[in-house]
Design goal:
The chain is of the alpha/beta class. The chain has 10 helices and 14 strands.
């Protein structure tokens, strides 16, 4: 006869998809779980990071999470920030509960910028904060975001697309410019997500932009005409929210170096350095060319990823 498995108390900090999934698996194995979360509601980026109009996707995920959280061995505690400057430190959690193990599933909660002049001025925001705002996560939902009419977004991944989606269809600003230090061939967004804003792509401006950098693209063997076809293949896809007058534009092969501020201390331009693409090992990197120019804008949003929150206290 097999001996019964030992049951352990396990603390999981962070109730996003990873934390909730781990809680479910460990509870099914007979362990008792204390699930501690910074936010009141569980779900993490599945709750607050998915674009707010994707109701069916969100509700499907919530249903799955509710089933896990209803397990009698899972004990959820929300609105508790763990960290050196939080409600409780990691060491205090371990001393109070004396768990067999602590699982950290908080993700990268720190805000990542580029360290350029002007990045902390009024009118300059991090994408994560704006995503939390339009998804109604306190305290971000109560903050005022002074968005102008010409918005530069640094980065060309799916987060950029979500921010552009919001600016185009919810804010209906005049212009959104996605700024990338590398080229169109290195774009990180998916076509599935880009469909939501493809109808607003200024195709004439895109043609001019690709001609501007044609020599640098062809220098590494990239086909400009093929890139144009790839970038414009969804421009005739009608957006679900209906038409918007916003112009969406790309600026490739330019690395942000400074946010130029106007008389009132808000952005008046994003100063960038021309780059070229260099093949290095199995990757393509951007190399600065030492020439600079300005992209006029009145708002700048960083969509360059996140970093680990150093306040958390991990060694």
């Amino acid at each position: 006869m097999a001996a019964p498995r030992a049951s352990h108390l396990i603390v999981i900090i962070g109730a996003g998809p990873a934390g909730i999934y781990a809680a479910g698996k460990l509870a099914e194995a007979g362990h008792h779980i204390v699930l501690v979360n910074r936010d009141i509601k569980p779900g993490g980026l599945a709750e607050y990071g998915i674009y707010f109009t994707k109701h069916r996707m969100k509700e499907g995920i919530r249903k799955h999470f509710r089933r896990i959280l209803a397990h009698p061995h899972v004990h959820y505690f929300g609105h508790i920030r763990v960290g050196r400057n939080g409600d409780v430190t990691l060491d205090e959690v371990r001393a109070l509960l004396r768990p067999s193990a602590v699982l950290i599933t908080t993700g990268a909660q720190g805000t990542k910028f580029l360290g350029i002049p002007g990045e902390h001025a009024p009118g300059v925001y991090h994408a994560k904060d704006l995503v939390y705002h339009y998804n109604n996560l306190p305290p971000f939902s109560q903050r005022t975001f002074l968005i102008g009419q010409r918005v530069a977004i640094i980065g060309i991944g799916n987060v950029m697309v979500d921010i552009a989606h919001y600016l185009i269809h919810a804010r209906k600003v005049e212009e959104v410019i996605a700024v990338a230090r590398r080229g169109p061939g290195q774009r990180a967004y998916t076509d599935k997500e880009f469909k939501a804003i493809a109808a607003n792509l200024d195709v004439d401006d895109l043609r001019r932009e690709l001609e501007r950098i044609r020599i640098r693209l062809e220098a590494i063997g990239e086909d400009v005409e093929e890139l144009y076809r790839e970038l414009t293949k969804h421009v005739n896809t009608p957006p679900e929210e209906g038409p918007s007058p916003t112009r969406f534009r790309f600026r490739f092969l330019c690395a942000p170096k400074e946010i130029v501020l106007g008389p009132e201390g808000r952005p008046s331009a994003l100063r960038v350095e021309d780059t070229e693409l260099v093949r290095r090992d199995h990757s393509i990197v951007a190399k600065g060319l030492g020439t600079y120019w300005d992209i006029p804008c009145d708002t700048v949003i960083f969509a360059v990823g996140d970093k680990v929150d150093e306040d958390f206290g991990l060694p």
